Amino acid sequence: MTHASARARAIIVGGSLGGLFAANLLVRNGWNVDVFERVPDELAGRGAGIVTHPELFEALAAAGIDFDDSIGVKVQSRVTFAQNGAVLSERNLPQTLTAWGKMYHVLRAALPDVHYHAGGTVASVQDGPDQAIVTLTDGTVLHADLVIAADGFKSSIREYFLPDVKLQYAGYVAWRGLVDEADLSRETREALFEKFAFCLPPREQILGYPVAGRGNSTTPGERRYNFVWYRATSEDIQLPNLLTDRSGKRWVGGIPPTLIRQDVLAEMEDAALTLLAPQFGEVVTKAKQPLFQPIFDLEVPQMAFGRIALLGDAAFVARPHCGMGVTKAGSDAMALVKALQAHTGVRDALADYSRERTQVGAAIVQHARHLGAYMQAQLKNEVDREMAERYRTPDAVMRETAVPARF
Ligand SMILES: Cc1cc2nc3c(=O)[nH]c(=O)nc-3n(C[C@H](O)[C@H](O)[C@H](O)COP(=O)(O)OP(=O)(O)OC[C@H]3O[C@@H](n4cnc5c(N)ncnc54)[C@H](O)[C@@H]3O)c2cc1C
Protein backbone atom coordinates (compact mmCIF):
# COMPACT_ATOMS: atom_id res chain seq x y z
CA MET A 1 0.00 0.00 0.00
CA THR A 2 1.33 3.47 -0.79
CA HIS A 3 0.29 6.67 0.83
CA ALA A 4 -1.37 7.67 -2.43
CA SER A 5 -4.14 5.14 -1.84
CA ALA A 6 -7.21 6.48 -0.09
CA ARG A 7 -6.89 7.06 3.63
CA ALA A 8 -3.39 5.75 4.19
CA ARG A 9 -2.81 5.51 7.92
CA ALA A 10 -0.24 7.37 9.99
CA ILE A 11 0.44 6.71 13.66
CA ILE A 12 2.20 9.47 15.57
CA VAL A 13 3.93 8.65 18.84
CA GLY A 14 3.88 11.75 21.08
CA GLY A 15 1.21 14.43 21.13
CA SER A 16 3.33 17.43 22.05
CA LEU A 17 4.19 20.25 19.65
CA GLY A 18 6.13 18.12 17.13
CA GLY A 19 3.45 15.43 17.02
CA LEU A 20 0.68 18.00 16.69
CA PHE A 21 2.38 19.82 13.81
CA ALA A 22 2.71 16.51 11.97
CA ALA A 23 -0.86 15.43 12.77
CA ASN A 24 -2.44 18.66 11.57
CA LEU A 25 -0.42 18.67 8.36
CA LEU A 26 -1.14 15.01 7.57
CA VAL A 27 -4.87 15.34 8.26
CA ARG A 28 -4.98 18.29 5.86
CA ASN A 29 -3.24 16.08 3.30
CA GLY A 30 -5.87 13.35 3.49
CA TRP A 31 -4.18 10.94 5.88
CA ASN A 32 -5.99 8.90 8.48
CA VAL A 33 -4.08 9.95 11.60
CA ASP A 34 -3.87 8.60 15.14
CA VAL A 35 -1.75 10.39 17.73
CA PHE A 36 -0.82 8.46 20.89
CA GLU A 37 0.24 10.60 23.82
CA ARG A 38 1.11 8.79 27.03
CA VAL A 39 0.11 11.73 29.27
CA PRO A 40 -3.60 11.28 30.00
CA ASP A 41 -4.40 14.97 30.54
CA GLU A 42 -3.93 18.10 28.47
CA LEU A 43 -0.24 18.91 28.13
CA ALA A 44 -0.76 22.61 28.93
CA GLY A 45 1.23 23.92 31.86
CA ARG A 46 4.75 23.50 30.54
CA GLY A 47 4.76 27.28 30.72
CA ALA A 48 7.95 28.19 28.95
CA GLY A 49 8.56 31.01 26.51
CA ILE A 50 9.13 30.28 22.85
CA VAL A 51 10.95 32.55 20.44
CA THR A 52 9.23 32.70 17.05
CA HIS A 53 10.88 32.67 13.63
CA PRO A 54 9.34 33.14 10.17
CA GLU A 55 9.44 29.35 9.54
CA LEU A 56 7.30 28.77 12.63
CA PHE A 57 4.56 30.95 11.16
CA GLU A 58 4.96 29.16 7.82
CA ALA A 59 4.44 25.81 9.56
CA LEU A 60 1.39 27.09 11.47
CA ALA A 61 -0.15 28.39 8.24
CA ALA A 62 0.58 25.11 6.42
CA ALA A 63 -1.06 23.23 9.32
CA GLY A 64 -4.22 25.26 8.68
CA ILE A 65 -4.01 27.33 11.82
CA ASP A 66 -5.46 30.82 11.79
CA PHE A 67 -3.51 33.05 14.07
CA ASP A 68 -3.57 36.73 14.82
CA ASP A 69 -1.59 39.13 16.99
CA SER A 70 -2.65 37.23 20.12
CA ILE A 71 -0.24 34.43 19.12
CA GLY A 72 2.46 36.26 21.08
CA VAL A 73 3.85 39.39 22.63
CA LYS A 74 5.78 41.78 20.40
CA VAL A 75 9.01 43.41 21.50
CA GLN A 76 10.84 46.08 19.54
CA SER A 77 14.34 45.90 20.96
CA ARG A 78 16.97 44.06 22.97
CA VAL A 79 18.79 45.43 25.96
CA THR A 80 21.70 44.27 28.11
CA PHE A 81 21.83 45.26 31.76
CA ALA A 82 25.00 45.59 33.82
CA GLN A 83 25.13 43.88 37.19
CA ASN A 84 24.19 47.19 38.83
CA GLY A 85 21.07 47.44 36.66
CA ALA A 86 22.33 50.17 34.31
CA VAL A 87 21.71 49.73 30.57
CA LEU A 88 24.96 48.61 28.91
CA SER A 89 23.76 48.31 25.36
CA GLU A 90 20.56 48.36 23.33
CA ARG A 91 19.68 47.10 19.87
CA ASN A 92 16.60 47.43 17.68
CA LEU A 93 15.26 43.93 16.91
CA PRO A 94 11.48 43.48 16.59
CA GLN A 95 10.36 39.96 17.45
CA THR A 96 7.25 38.05 18.59
CA LEU A 97 7.56 35.85 21.66
CA THR A 98 4.98 33.22 22.34
CA ALA A 99 4.54 30.61 25.05
CA TRP A 100 4.61 26.82 25.00
CA GLY A 101 1.03 26.73 26.32
CA LYS A 102 -0.20 29.03 23.56
CA MET A 103 1.42 26.95 20.83
CA TYR A 104 0.00 23.75 22.31
CA HIS A 105 -3.44 25.33 22.55
CA VAL A 106 -3.64 26.44 18.89
CA LEU A 107 -2.20 23.17 17.53
CA ARG A 108 -4.36 20.94 19.71
CA ALA A 109 -7.54 22.95 19.03
CA ALA A 110 -6.98 22.57 15.27
CA LEU A 111 -6.87 18.76 15.48
CA PRO A 112 -10.26 16.98 15.78
CA ASP A 113 -10.43 14.89 19.00
CA VAL A 114 -11.01 11.69 17.03
CA HIS A 115 -7.32 11.73 16.04
CA TYR A 116 -5.84 12.26 19.53
CA HIS A 117 -5.56 9.44 22.07
CA ALA A 118 -4.45 10.88 25.41
CA GLY A 119 -3.18 8.23 27.79
CA GLY A 120 -2.11 5.92 24.95
CA THR A 121 1.46 4.72 25.42
CA VAL A 122 3.37 3.08 22.62
CA ALA A 123 5.48 0.14 23.81
CA SER A 124 7.21 -0.74 20.54
CA VAL A 125 7.38 0.03 16.83
CA GLN A 126 8.61 -2.30 14.12
CA ASP A 127 8.88 -1.98 10.40
CA GLY A 128 7.22 -4.70 8.30
CA PRO A 129 7.21 -5.56 4.60
CA ASP A 130 3.80 -3.98 3.93
CA GLN A 131 3.06 -1.94 7.03
CA ALA A 132 4.68 -0.91 10.29
CA ILE A 133 3.46 -2.54 13.49
CA VAL A 134 2.79 -0.45 16.58
CA THR A 135 2.13 -2.12 19.93
CA LEU A 136 0.61 -0.19 22.81
CA THR A 137 1.37 -0.95 26.46
CA ASP A 138 -2.19 -2.30 26.90
CA GLY A 139 -1.38 -4.96 24.31
CA THR A 140 -3.26 -3.43 21.36
CA VAL A 141 -1.49 -4.08 18.05
CA LEU A 142 -1.98 -1.57 15.24
CA HIS A 143 -0.76 -1.35 11.65
CA ALA A 144 0.22 1.79 9.80
CA ASP A 145 1.70 2.92 6.50
CA LEU A 146 3.74 5.56 8.29
CA VAL A 147 4.89 5.95 11.90
CA ILE A 148 6.24 9.23 13.21
CA ALA A 149 8.28 9.14 16.40
CA ALA A 150 7.69 12.56 17.94
CA ASP A 151 8.42 11.17 21.40
CA GLY A 152 10.88 13.79 22.54
CA PHE A 153 14.55 13.92 23.53
CA LYS A 154 14.40 10.65 25.48
CA SER A 155 12.74 8.90 22.50
CA SER A 156 12.55 5.16 23.08
CA ILE A 157 12.00 4.64 19.35
CA ARG A 158 15.28 6.40 18.58
CA GLU A 159 16.99 4.29 21.24
CA TYR A 160 15.66 1.16 19.58
CA PHE A 161 16.91 2.07 16.09
CA LEU A 162 20.04 3.97 17.12
CA PRO A 163 21.20 2.49 20.44
CA ASP A 164 24.63 4.14 20.18
CA VAL A 165 23.28 7.69 19.95
CA LYS A 166 23.45 9.36 23.36
CA LEU A 167 22.53 12.75 24.78
CA GLN A 168 25.72 14.76 25.38
CA TYR A 169 25.62 16.95 28.50
CA ALA A 170 26.90 20.44 27.60
CA GLY A 171 28.31 21.35 31.03
CA TYR A 172 25.59 23.77 32.13
CA VAL A 173 21.96 23.94 33.12
CA ALA A 174 19.22 26.43 32.31
CA TRP A 175 17.08 27.65 35.17
CA ARG A 176 13.73 28.76 33.83
CA GLY A 177 10.70 30.41 35.29
CA LEU A 178 7.78 32.74 34.79
CA VAL A 179 6.57 35.65 36.87
CA ASP A 180 3.23 37.45 36.56
CA GLU A 181 3.60 41.00 35.29
CA ALA A 182 1.39 42.21 38.13
CA ASP A 183 3.76 40.79 40.76
CA LEU A 184 6.73 42.88 39.61
CA SER A 185 7.65 46.33 40.91
CA ARG A 186 6.88 49.27 38.63
CA GLU A 187 10.62 49.91 38.07
CA THR A 188 11.28 46.35 36.93
CA ARG A 189 8.16 46.25 34.76
CA GLU A 190 9.21 49.46 33.03
CA ALA A 191 12.77 48.26 32.52
CA LEU A 192 11.95 44.78 31.23
CA PHE A 193 8.55 44.59 29.58
CA GLU A 194 8.46 45.35 25.85
CA LYS A 195 12.08 44.15 25.72
CA PHE A 196 14.15 41.04 25.14
CA ALA A 197 16.70 41.54 27.90
CA PHE A 198 20.08 40.08 28.84
CA CYS A 199 22.55 40.27 31.72
CA LEU A 200 26.05 38.79 31.42
CA PRO A 201 27.80 38.76 34.79
CA PRO A 202 31.07 36.80 34.93
CA ARG A 203 30.50 33.09 34.15
CA GLU A 204 26.73 33.51 33.87
CA GLN A 205 24.15 34.41 31.26
CA ILE A 206 20.50 35.24 31.77
CA LEU A 207 17.93 36.39 29.25
CA GLY A 208 14.26 37.14 29.52
CA TYR A 209 11.26 38.28 27.52
CA PRO A 210 7.53 38.86 27.99
CA VAL A 211 5.10 36.07 27.11
CA ALA A 212 1.36 35.49 27.32
CA GLY A 213 -0.03 35.18 30.84
CA ARG A 214 -2.85 33.23 32.43
CA GLY A 215 -5.49 32.13 29.90
CA ASN A 216 -2.96 32.94 27.16
CA SER A 217 -3.66 36.64 27.62
CA THR A 218 -1.31 39.06 25.87
CA THR A 219 -3.04 42.13 27.34
CA PRO A 220 -0.60 44.46 29.13
CA GLY A 221 -0.89 43.89 32.87
CA GLU A 222 -1.82 40.22 32.38
CA ARG A 223 1.38 38.99 30.71
CA ARG A 224 4.27 37.12 32.27
CA TYR A 225 8.01 37.55 32.08
CA ASN A 226 9.97 34.45 31.18
CA PHE A 227 13.62 33.95 32.06
CA VAL A 228 16.30 31.45 31.03
CA TRP A 229 19.41 31.53 33.21
CA TYR A 230 22.43 29.50 32.12
CA ARG A 231 24.77 28.33 34.89
CA ALA A 232 27.89 26.21 34.53
CA THR A 233 27.30 22.99 36.48
CA SER A 234 29.85 20.20 36.73
CA GLU A 235 28.67 16.78 35.62
CA ASP A 236 30.40 14.82 38.38
CA ILE A 237 29.40 16.74 41.52
CA GLN A 238 27.10 19.74 41.01
CA LEU A 239 24.60 18.21 38.58
CA PRO A 240 23.95 15.03 40.62
CA ASN A 241 23.41 17.25 43.67
CA LEU A 242 20.81 19.38 41.82
CA LEU A 243 19.09 16.24 40.55
CA THR A 244 18.75 14.64 44.00
CA ASP A 245 15.33 15.16 45.57
CA ARG A 246 14.30 15.43 49.22
CA SER A 247 13.94 11.66 49.60
CA GLY A 248 17.50 11.12 48.33
CA LYS A 249 16.38 9.83 44.94
CA ARG A 250 18.74 10.87 42.14
CA TRP A 251 16.94 11.72 38.89
CA VAL A 252 18.56 11.28 35.50
CA GLY A 253 18.35 13.95 32.81
CA GLY A 254 15.84 16.15 34.68
CA ILE A 255 13.86 16.42 37.91
CA PRO A 256 10.16 17.38 38.24
CA PRO A 257 10.02 21.04 39.37
CA THR A 258 8.03 20.22 42.53
CA LEU A 259 10.77 17.85 43.70
CA ILE A 260 13.68 20.31 43.50
CA ARG A 261 15.08 20.57 47.06
CA GLN A 262 14.44 23.73 49.07
CA ASP A 263 18.17 24.30 49.72
CA VAL A 264 18.87 24.09 45.97
CA LEU A 265 16.19 26.72 45.31
CA ALA A 266 17.46 28.92 48.15
CA GLU A 267 21.03 28.79 46.84
CA MET A 268 19.81 29.68 43.34
CA GLU A 269 17.79 32.64 44.66
CA ASP A 270 20.74 33.92 46.72
CA ALA A 271 22.93 33.73 43.63
CA ALA A 272 20.31 35.62 41.61
CA LEU A 273 20.31 38.49 44.09
CA THR A 274 24.12 38.60 44.24
CA LEU A 275 25.09 38.03 40.62
CA LEU A 276 22.33 39.41 38.43
CA ALA A 277 21.09 42.89 37.62
CA PRO A 278 18.45 43.76 40.26
CA GLN A 279 15.70 43.64 37.62
CA PHE A 280 16.54 40.00 36.92
CA GLY A 281 17.11 39.29 40.62
CA GLU A 282 13.50 40.32 41.20
CA VAL A 283 12.18 38.25 38.29
CA VAL A 284 14.02 35.10 39.41
CA THR A 285 13.11 35.35 43.08
CA LYS A 286 9.43 36.06 42.32
CA ALA A 287 9.01 33.20 39.84
CA LYS A 288 6.38 30.78 41.16
CA GLN A 289 7.85 27.41 40.30
CA PRO A 290 11.35 27.78 38.92
CA LEU A 291 12.81 24.69 37.29
CA PHE A 292 16.07 23.74 35.71
CA GLN A 293 16.96 21.66 32.70
CA PRO A 294 20.40 20.19 32.04
CA ILE A 295 21.45 21.30 28.55
CA PHE A 296 22.19 18.53 26.07
CA ASP A 297 23.29 18.15 22.48
CA LEU A 298 21.73 15.32 20.51
CA GLU A 299 22.49 14.38 16.91
CA VAL A 300 21.39 11.41 14.80
CA PRO A 301 22.96 10.14 11.55
CA GLN A 302 19.55 9.42 9.97
CA MET A 303 15.89 10.21 10.64
CA ALA A 304 14.13 7.39 8.78
CA PHE A 305 14.01 3.61 9.17
CA GLY A 306 11.78 2.25 6.42
CA ARG A 307 8.28 3.53 7.22
CA ILE A 308 9.31 5.03 10.54
CA ALA A 309 10.49 8.64 10.85
CA LEU A 310 11.99 10.57 13.76
CA LEU A 311 10.75 14.14 14.17
CA GLY A 312 11.54 17.10 16.44
CA ASP A 313 13.51 16.55 19.65
CA ALA A 314 13.47 12.77 19.11
CA ALA A 315 16.09 13.34 16.40
CA PHE A 316 18.03 16.52 17.17
CA VAL A 317 18.22 18.59 20.33
CA ALA A 318 20.04 21.88 20.00
CA ARG A 319 20.96 24.03 22.98
CA PRO A 320 18.28 26.69 23.44
CA HIS A 321 20.52 29.62 22.38
CA CYS A 322 19.08 29.77 18.87
CA GLY A 323 15.51 29.26 20.13
CA MET A 324 14.77 26.85 17.30
CA GLY A 325 13.30 23.75 18.98
CA VAL A 326 9.66 24.31 18.13
CA THR A 327 10.43 25.87 14.76
CA LYS A 328 12.59 22.86 13.89
CA ALA A 329 9.78 20.47 14.82
CA GLY A 330 7.31 22.43 12.63
CA SER A 331 9.78 22.52 9.73
CA ASP A 332 10.43 18.77 10.09
CA ALA A 333 6.68 18.18 9.76
CA MET A 334 6.46 20.40 6.68
CA ALA A 335 9.42 18.66 5.03
CA LEU A 336 7.93 15.24 5.79
CA VAL A 337 4.60 16.08 4.20
CA LYS A 338 6.32 17.66 1.18
CA ALA A 339 8.37 14.48 0.68
CA LEU A 340 5.21 12.34 0.95
CA GLN A 341 3.56 14.49 -1.72
CA ALA A 342 6.57 14.07 -4.02
CA HIS A 343 6.75 10.24 -3.86
CA THR A 344 4.28 7.42 -4.29
CA GLY A 345 6.09 5.16 -1.81
CA VAL A 346 6.40 6.04 1.88
CA ARG A 347 9.91 4.54 2.18
CA ASP A 348 11.26 6.70 -0.67
CA ALA A 349 9.60 9.76 0.78
CA LEU A 350 11.10 9.14 4.22
CA ALA A 351 14.55 8.56 2.75
CA ASP A 352 14.36 12.01 1.11
CA TYR A 353 13.02 13.56 4.31
CA SER A 354 15.85 12.01 6.28
CA ARG A 355 18.53 13.31 3.88
CA GLU A 356 17.19 16.85 3.98
CA ARG A 357 16.39 17.18 7.68
CA THR A 358 19.45 15.34 9.03
CA GLN A 359 21.59 18.03 7.40
CA VAL A 360 19.46 20.83 8.77
CA GLY A 361 19.29 19.32 12.27
CA ALA A 362 23.06 18.92 12.40
CA ALA A 363 23.56 22.55 11.28
CA ILE A 364 21.22 23.85 13.99
CA VAL A 365 22.95 21.77 16.70
CA GLN A 366 26.33 23.03 15.52
CA HIS A 367 25.21 26.67 15.52
CA ALA A 368 23.74 26.37 19.01
CA ARG A 369 26.93 24.71 20.23
CA HIS A 370 28.89 27.70 18.94
CA LEU A 371 26.56 30.12 20.73
CA GLY A 372 26.87 28.12 23.95
CA ALA A 373 30.65 27.68 23.82
CA TYR A 374 31.08 30.46 26.33
CA MET A 375 29.04 28.65 28.97
CA GLN A 376 30.84 25.39 28.30
CA ALA A 377 34.23 27.08 28.74
CA GLN A 378 33.39 27.97 32.35
CA LEU A 379 34.30 24.53 33.57
CA LYS A 380 37.66 24.58 31.79
CA ASN A 381 40.83 26.52 32.62
CA GLU A 382 41.42 30.24 32.95
CA VAL A 383 42.83 30.57 29.40
CA ASP A 384 39.72 29.00 27.83
CA ARG A 385 37.51 31.19 29.95
CA GLU A 386 39.34 34.37 28.93
CA MET A 387 39.19 33.36 25.28
CA ALA A 388 35.45 32.75 25.49
CA GLU A 389 34.93 36.04 27.31
CA ARG A 390 36.39 37.99 24.38
CA TYR A 391 33.60 36.76 22.12
CA ARG A 392 30.91 37.46 24.63
CA THR A 393 30.33 41.18 24.26
CA PRO A 394 26.77 42.35 24.88
CA ASP A 395 26.51 43.32 21.20
CA ALA A 396 27.56 39.87 19.98
CA VAL A 397 25.18 38.11 22.35
CA MET A 398 22.24 40.33 21.41
CA ARG A 399 23.03 40.02 17.70
CA GLU A 400 23.33 36.22 17.66
CA THR A 401 20.96 34.80 20.29
CA ALA A 402 17.57 33.46 19.13
CA VAL A 403 17.47 35.36 15.85
CA PRO A 404 15.92 34.10 12.61
CA ALA A 405 18.43 32.08 10.58
CA ARG A 406 17.94 29.82 7.58
CA PHE A 407 19.67 26.44 7.92
C1 LIG B 1 15.86 25.60 28.36
C2 LIG B 1 15.09 25.37 27.09
C3 LIG B 1 14.65 26.46 26.36
C4 LIG B 1 13.96 26.27 25.15
N1 LIG B 1 13.57 27.38 24.47
C5 LIG B 1 12.99 27.22 23.28
C6 LIG B 1 12.64 28.36 22.49
O1 LIG B 1 12.82 29.52 22.86
N2 LIG B 1 12.07 28.15 21.30
C7 LIG B 1 11.84 26.88 20.85
O2 LIG B 1 11.33 26.75 19.74
N3 LIG B 1 12.15 25.78 21.56
C8 LIG B 1 12.72 25.91 22.75
N4 LIG B 1 13.05 24.80 23.44
C9 LIG B 1 12.83 23.45 22.83
C10 LIG B 1 11.38 22.99 22.72
O3 LIG B 1 10.80 22.95 23.99
C11 LIG B 1 11.26 21.59 21.99
O4 LIG B 1 12.18 21.57 20.96
C12 LIG B 1 9.86 21.40 21.38
O5 LIG B 1 8.92 21.34 22.42
C13 LIG B 1 9.71 20.12 20.45
O6 LIG B 1 9.42 19.02 21.18
P1 LIG B 1 8.84 17.62 20.65
O7 LIG B 1 7.38 17.70 20.34
O8 LIG B 1 9.73 17.08 19.59
O9 LIG B 1 9.07 16.72 21.94
P2 LIG B 1 8.42 16.86 23.40
O10 LIG B 1 7.82 18.20 23.62
O11 LIG B 1 9.45 16.37 24.35
O12 LIG B 1 7.22 15.81 23.35
C14 LIG B 1 7.37 14.42 23.32
C15 LIG B 1 6.03 13.82 23.73
O13 LIG B 1 6.04 12.43 23.51
C16 LIG B 1 5.34 11.79 24.57
N5 LIG B 1 5.83 10.39 24.61
C17 LIG B 1 7.09 9.97 24.84
N6 LIG B 1 7.17 8.63 24.74
C18 LIG B 1 5.92 8.19 24.42
C19 LIG B 1 5.37 6.90 24.17
N7 LIG B 1 6.13 5.79 24.23
N8 LIG B 1 4.05 6.79 23.88
C20 LIG B 1 3.28 7.90 23.81
N9 LIG B 1 3.75 9.16 24.03
C21 LIG B 1 5.06 9.31 24.33
C22 LIG B 1 5.72 12.61 25.78
O14 LIG B 1 4.81 12.45 26.84
C23 LIG B 1 5.72 14.03 25.21
O15 LIG B 1 4.47 14.68 25.34
C24 LIG B 1 13.71 24.94 24.66
C25 LIG B 1 14.12 23.84 25.41
C26 LIG B 1 14.83 24.04 26.60
C27 LIG B 1 15.31 22.84 27.35
Automatic annotation (TrEMBL):
<dbReference type="InterPro" id="IPR002938">
    <property type="entry name" value="FAD-bd"/>
</dbReference>
<dbReference type="Pfam" id="PF22607">
    <property type="entry name" value="FAD_binding-like"/>
</dbReference>
<dbReference type="GO" id="GO:0071949">
    <property type="term" value="F:FAD binding"/>
</dbReference>
<feature type="domain" description="FAD-binding">
    <location>
        <begin position="9"/>
        <end position="160"/>
    </location>
</feature>
<dbReference type="Pfam" id="PF01494">
    <property type="entry name" value="FAD_binding_3"/>
</dbReference>
<protein>
    <submittedName>
        <fullName>2-polyprenyl-6-methoxyphenol hydroxylase</fullName>
    </submittedName>
</protein>
<dbReference type="InterPro" id="IPR053212">
    <property type="entry name" value="DHP_3-monooxygenase"/>
</dbReference>
<dbReference type="InterPro" id="IPR054707">
    <property type="entry name" value="DhpH_subs-bd"/>
</dbReference>
<dbReference type="InterPro" id="IPR036188">
    <property type="entry name" value="FAD/NAD-bd_sf"/>
</dbReference>
<feature type="domain" description="2,6-dihydroxypyridine 3-monooxygenase substrate binding">
    <location>
        <begin position="169"/>
        <end position="297"/>
    </location>
</feature>
<feature type="domain" description="FAD-binding">
    <location>
        <begin position="302"/>
        <end position="367"/>
    </location>
</feature>
